[in-house]
Amino acid sequence: MPKARHAVVTGGGRGIGAATARRFKELGYRVTLMARTRSEIEGLADEIGAYAVRIDVGDPASVEAAFMAAGPVDVLVNNAGMVRPSQVTKTDVRVWEEHLKVNLTGAFLCSLKVLPGMISRQKGRIINVAGTTGLTGVPGLASLCASKHGLIGFTRALAAEVGHKGVTVNAVCPGFVDTPATHETLTTLAEKTGQDVAVLLASIKARNPQDRLFTVDEVAETITWLAGTGTQAINGSIINMDGGELAG
């Protein structure tokens, strides 16, 4: 019986990461969940039969230790991220740098750990979770947009470097997804702008021609599809999941 493929999901404790981990397990993968604290992922890991590993994706030493513990990886989902809403003129440089460290450098460091094994096996999948903030500007989210735009560039460049070595690198770009992080962001924006949360929610839904938030399961389905065996030709692609928001 062939050995189950091993998928690592960073930021795996909730939202998109948790839904993706569940879907991978349903498909028969061996799954490792990674997050900044083990308490974020231990419950889910126990529930679905996954392995829980602590990681600070912006810390090279922590990334080294986490991937040493995880072992060979067939699929890496760079999902760990952060967002702290702030207008540009009110953004502290440390907040700006933290966005870049977690959202961009984290994907770089984690990818570095899995690439040697993938290249040696001539097979591997790296999937970066970017979001439409990697493709357009959103008021109050400049730091997030800058880091995710960088992640798109990294995706395309790495795909061009390793595509001939059997490794594919792609990004998924969902619009606003119904996750705790999205609702926390809206609450923070409301506090900083004086707007009502319901008004802000309606405004982001209105950006989407489908007039809704997306579900974590929709994103997880796309990620696991990209990791599948019939998608070798898809490399360096930026998969929009925006309901037509950025069409045309």
Account of the protein in words:
- The structure is a single chain.
- This protein has eight helices and seven strands, in the order βαβαβαβαβαβαααβ.
- The chain has helices at about 15-25, 40-50, 60-70, 95-120, 140-160, 180-195, 195-205, 215-225; strands at about 5-10, 30-35, 50-55, 75-80, 125-130, 165-175, 240.
- The chain has about 250 residues and is α/β, with parallel strands linked by helices.
- A seven-stranded parallel beta sheet has the order 3-2-1-4-5-6-7, with helices on both faces.
- Helix 2 links the parallel strand 2 (about 30-35) and strand 3.
- Helix content is about 45%, strand content about 15%.
- It starts with 5 loop residues before the first strand and ends in a 7-residue tail after the last strand.
- The mean pLDDT is about 95.
- The chain has a single domain (about 5-175, about 215-240), classed as NAD(P)-binding Rossmann-like Domain (Rossmann fold), CATH 3.40.50.
- The radius of gyration is 17 Å and the shape is globular.
- Helix 4 (about 95-120) packs parallel to helix 5.
